[in-house]
Amino acid sequence: MRRLLRWTVAAAAVAALLGAAGWVALTWVLPHHRPALHDGERYGIDVSAHQGEVDWSAVAGDGIEATYLKASEGATFVDDRFAQNWAGAQAAGLDVGAYHFFTLCKEGTAQAENLLTQLRGVDADDTALPPVVDLELSGNCSARPSTEVVATRLLDLVTAVEDETGQQVRLYVIDSYAERYPLPDELADRERWVRRILLRPSEDGWAWWQVSSRARVEGIDGPVDLDVVAAG
Question: Which residues form a coiled coil (predicted)?
Fold first, then answer.
């Protein structure tokens, strides 16, 4: 009986230590982890109104050199901190770009006009990072239009944005989206923003790599997405 009690106490102690180690990893180690950079790479973040007020000078002082900011979603939604974030990030010396959350249920031309209106509002030019289209099923409309309809809407969006900005759009594509809606062949050569938490992507050719969605960065109250910007 005493031996069983000792084993029970020892097992409980080990479990407590493992739990404490896991808590430390989740609350401090992982949020502060930054992967080693290869030659020419830089750290970036992506930000929306969810991050609240951002102190961009503090962000720059924490080694962040570039950022993508949410500008728009669908045909009408506008991130209400986009213009403020753009001005603040530019003033702090970061490279700045905008991203648009693509909605399955709205026409591509209307979505393009929504994004372009926001870019015009901040006087974006070809020195900005190329616009990004964010392709995800999570958070999208509940309807699931046909592959052909979605491809047409996406191509209309990309074409209109590229025609006005003179920049090739980058694509952020979540796996579940790509499985349901494979990218049209016409977009196969677009640069990618890839998501691979903590581990360096195995594929080559990415432009941005999302490392974490729970990073801690000075100047931001709460978690933020941490990215690595490819060299070049």
Answer: none
The torsion region of residue 212 among left (phi > 0), alpha (psi -120 to 50) and beta comes to beta
For the chain, the farthest-separated pair of C-alpha atoms sits apart, in whole angstroms, at 79
Q: Report the 10 Å Cβ neighbour count for 98.
A: 26
**For the segment 5-33, what is each residue's pLDDT rounded down to a tens digit?**
556 554 444 443 344 334 434 455 789 89
Q: Is the pTM of this model over 0.85?
A: yes
Give the phi and the psi of residue 228 in degrees, each rounded to 5.
-115, 130
Q: Where are the domains of the chain?
A: 1-32, 38-229
Q: Can you read off the two tokens belonging to residue 198? A: 């903590």
* C-beta of residue 110 within 8 angstroms of C-beta of residue 75: yes
* SS3 per-residue string spanning 40-85: CCEEEEEECHHHCCCCHHHHHHCCEEEEEEEEEECCCEECCCHHHH
Find residue 101's DSSP bridge partners: 73, 134
* Class of 38-229 in CATH: alpha beta
Q: Report residue 42: phi and psi, to 5°.
A: -140, 165
